[in-house]
Amino acid sequence: MTLREQIREYALTTLEMDLVGITDVDRLSGAPPGYRPQDLLPGARSVIVMAVRLPLGAVQTIYRAHEDGLRHAQCIYGTHGYALTPNYHLKFAAYRMARFLEKQGLIATSLPSGPGSGGTPFSHRHAAVAAGLGEFGWSGIVVTPDYGPRVRFVSVITRAELEPDPLYSGPPLCDRCDICVDVCPVGAISPVESRSVEMGGRVYEYGKVHYAKCRVGTEGLTTKSLGFKDLPIPDDPTWEDVDAARRDIDKRQLNEVILPVDRATWYCGRCLAYCPIGSDKELGMLEGLSSY
Question: Does pTM top 0.85 for this prediction?
């Protein structure tokens, strides 16, 4: 069994990953300085990208929170669809994959995923596309044939020279239906403006996302995304505006000695929940508003 085959078997079987792909560092050479694999591991040659699909029952609670008024149901997605379960599972998987490689004398850098990553200068979603696991949806999230955008990624950089997987070459996954644009509670996804990136000789285009606006929604700083109140945030917020609103919440909670119910979870996820891409949607395993 080749090293490449060992890596795949270890990821899918021992680490219980749902997807695994490999890219060479050349496909990521267009990343900004400081964000390339070689910047984090000098001499890096390959990147192993692993993924877990989100539990569909956790995704289902997004619908219940927004459609049925069960605000507390959003906490289930926040825990098992984002903050805790999938991302910690991925963190440990990356750590174990790095140990697996280094036991064979191959240095590897495991990267964190999700909360607690400390702003790691690396894009798992670009690495996932470069490793052939999917393509970009208009929302900027990676969509995969089986799970649509309901999947999370983590990466391991290594000096091992591994044959890269081919880029995804199946039928286009995103047909610009604009559902992600329509369901975004804070209008963070542009319906017309786009960004593009070149990887492996192919150009990928996806919608321009106003990430400060996205954070307003995902942190529940507005009633539009199940927050308890609309905080004084400009319509076109900067990161500083969002930080100021977060500090206001922290100060108010401290003064009132209450539980942090205003920021109890990851408040959104609507773009990935309502996206029609993926066999889980085709099989009717996720059911939201019939209009989507």
Answer: yes
